[in-house]
Amino acid sequence: MKIGILGGGQLARMIALAGYPLGLQFVVLDPDTNAGAGGLSEHLLGAYDDPALLAQLAEKADIVTYEFENVPAHVAEYLSSHTTVYPPAGALAVAQDRLLEKNFFRDLGMRTAPFAPVDCLDDLVRAVADIGYPAILKSRRMGYDGKGQVLIHSAEQLETAWLAMQDAPSIVEGFVGFEREVSIIAARRPTGAIAFYPLSENRHRGGILRIAECRSDDPLQTLAEDYVTRLLEKLDYVGVVALELFAVGNELLANEFAPRVHNSGHWTIEGAETSQFENHLRAILDLPLGSTRARGYAGMVNFIGGVAGDAQVLGIANAHLHLYDKAPRKGRKVAHATVRADSADCYRAALQQLADLALATDDS
Amino acid sequence: MKIGILGGGQLARMIALAGYPLGLQFVVLDPDTNAGAGGLSEHLLGAYDDPALLAQLAEKADIVTYEFENVPAHVAEYLSSHTTVYPPAGALAVAQDRLLEKNFFRDLGMRTAPFAPVDCLDDLVRAVADIGYPAILKSRRMGYDGKGQVLIHSAEQLETAWLAMQDAPSIVEGFVGFEREVSIIAARRPTGAIAFYPLSENRHRGGILRIAECRSDDPLQTLAEDYVTRLLEKLDYVGVVALELFAVGNELLANEFAPRVHNSGHWTIEGAETSQFENHLRAILDLPLGSTRARGYAGMVNFIGGVAGDAQVLGIANAHLHLYDKAPRKGRKVAHATVRADSADCYRAALQQLADLALATDDS
C-alpha cells in the first residue's frame, strides 16, 4: 500500500516514520530538493500544482493525503477525481478561508470571537465600531504562524492596517483576552469511529507555537470533544484534525482548525499510546484507531531558527529529539523535543530545561 | 552523519527508523533486492564480502555497524581499518564461536553449563561421559535460531549426532533444566557509560523466539547487570549488546551473547523510555544514553511465517504492529507486535490475544 503526500516537510516525514512499521510506502510531491521526507519516500520534485506530477502522484498512490491545508482547490479536485483523497476536499475549502471557517463554526453552534468580513476600509471601520478594540485584521486566506495578521488598538491604526492587507479579502475579529489556548486533536475513520486525544495547551510567541503540553483530565475536554465531533461529522471527515480553541473560564471559543496532523500534537509521538501520525494513517486506511491515552506527563518544545547540540538535548532525562533535516533559517521550525515522564516533577524539570535550550538558540 | 549497516533486514530497518529523528542517514549493504531497510536508506546491493561494495560502504559511512554477528573476520578487519566500526571486531570474533564464547564467559567468572570442545566422535564420547545426558551438540560457528544443534539423550545417539555436524568443529554442552530464559540488553558508550534495560523473559518454540516480556524489578536484574558489565568492559564494547542467560533458582548461567540489537528487546520500542535501536545509535555516536526504564508493562510477540491481518492486530487495545516488509516464508520472522499498558490485567489480556493470533498464522 502506497500513501501519497502533498508536501514533503516534517509532517510528511513523521507520517512516513509512523507508516513504515505498518508496512506502508510513501511518495511525496514537494518542490524542495531537500524535503525532509525525501529519504523516506519516493520524491516527486516540483510544484504542488504541476499537472504531470499530480497525475503521477494520483497514479502511484493508493490514497493521497497532505501535510498543509493551502492546497489550491483545483489540485484537490483533480486528485479527488483520480484517487482517494483524505481528508476530504470540503474540509480544505473551509480551512483555507478564515471567513468560511468562522461561519462554519458559528453554524455548528460553537462560540467564536465576534467577527466580520472586510473587503474595504469602510467595512473595517464599520465592523470595528461594533466589535471594539483591540481587534485583529486577518487576510482570509494563506495565513499561518501569525502571518497576514495586524493587531489594531485604536481608530488611528485602521487605515494602516487595511493598507497592510493589500486589498486581500479579509476578516476582522474581536481580540479575545483568553486565559489559555488549547487544541483538540481527533481522528475519524470512514466508518465514523472517532478517537480524541487529551487536550494540548499551547504557548505561542510571535505567532509561532513554542510549547504544547498534554492536559489529561482537563475540565474542558468534554466540551472540546463535542465541538470537534460536530466539525468531523459535518465534513464527513476522515483522518486527523486539529481544532484550536481559546479557553475563557468554562467556555471555549473556536479559533481555527487544521485538516491535518498538527504541531500541537507532536507530544503524542512518545507521550500517547498511539501517535497522531499513526492514527492519521490508521484513519485514512480505515484500520482500528489506536488508543489516544497519554502515557504519563508529556509535552513538546519547538526549536525555531536553530537547534541546540544533540548531546545537550539528549542529556536531559526523558527528552526525545526530533530533527527535521532542515537547514537553520530565521523563524524556521527545525526540530522539536518531547518530554514524557511518570512524575510531574521530572516532567516539569525536563520541559523547563528544554524550553531554556530552545530560547537560547531561538532567533525569532 | 551517515551510518553504514552491514545487513539491511528488519534490525537495520528499525535502527534506521530510530535514527531519522536524530537527523541520521543510512547506507546498508545487503544482497537482497527487497531488503526491509532498503526504502529507508541507500542500498548497496551485493554480497557482504564484496570488496568493491565494502570499500563504498567504508567511504560513504561515518560509522559502520551491523545487524548480525556472522561477519567474516576479514570483512570486519577491512572495515575497521578504513572507518570506525562499532561494536568492535573483537566482540564479533568471540560471539561467532561458541567455544570461544563459553571460555570467555568462564574466564570472566560467569557460570555456564558444563561444556567441552568436540572435533571428532571420540571427543564427543569422552566429553559426554563427563557431562552426562541429556547433552547438546552444537557447531561452534554460524548457529542461530536453534540451527546446527542436536539434542543427545543416550549413548546410542552419539554417532548420529556427530555425523549431523559434518565434521564441523563443535562444542557439547550439558542440558540445563532451566526455569526461565532471560536476556539483558545493555548499551555502552566509548566513554564507558553503560545503560541496562530491565530483563527480558523469553519463550522459544522450535529454537525460535516467540514471546519476550519486560521484567522490571526482577530479583536477578543485579546479577545480570554484573555479568553484562564484565563482558562490556572486557571487550571495550560500544553499542547495544544482548546477553542470553538461563535462570536456575537464584543463579544465572551465561548461554550466549549477540553483539547487536536483539529480538528479545523489541518491546523497548514502545515499552521503554528509549528503544534499544535509539540507544544503539546514541552509544555508537557517543551521545548521552537515553533512559532504559520500562513504561509500565511491556512485551512482544513474534509473527513467524505469516502475520494476521493488520486490522486484527491493531484492533487489540494497546497493540503496536511492526511489519518487516518481508514476504511470508515458512519459519521466517515477518513481523512482531508489542503491547504496552499501565495495568497488568490489560497487558496480559492483550499479550494473550496477540499470542493467539501469532499461533494461528505460525507455520513452523
Q: Roughly what percent helix of chain A? A: 25-40%
Please give the most extensive interface between any two protein chains, plus how many residues each contributes: A-B, 33 and 33 residues
Query: What is the CATH architecture descriptor of the largest domain in chain A?
Result: 2-Layer Sandwich
Total discrete domains of chain A: 3
CATH topology value of the largest domain in chain A: D-amino Acid Aminotransferase, Chain A, domain 1
| Morphology call of chain A | globular
Distance between the termini of chain A: 41 Å
What is the number of beta strands of chain A? Answer: 18
The biggest sheet of chain A, with number of strands, parallel, antiparallel or mixed sense and barrel status, is: 9 strands, antiparallel
The low-confidence runs of chain A, each spanning 5 or more residues with pLDDT under 50, are none
Structural class of chain A: alpha+beta
- In terms of DSSP E residues, the strand content of chain A is 25-35%
User: CATH superfamily membership of the largest domain in chain A, which one?
Assistant: ATP-grasp fold, B domain
The mean pLDDT of chain A is 94
GO molecular function (chains A, B): 5-(carboxyamino)imidazole ribonucleotide synthase activity; ATP binding; metal ion binding; phosphoribosylaminoimidazole carboxylase activity
Binding site for ATP (chains A, B): 98, 138, 143-149, 173-176, 181, 204, 255-256
Enzyme class (chains A, B): ligase
Subunit structure (chains A, B): Homodimer.
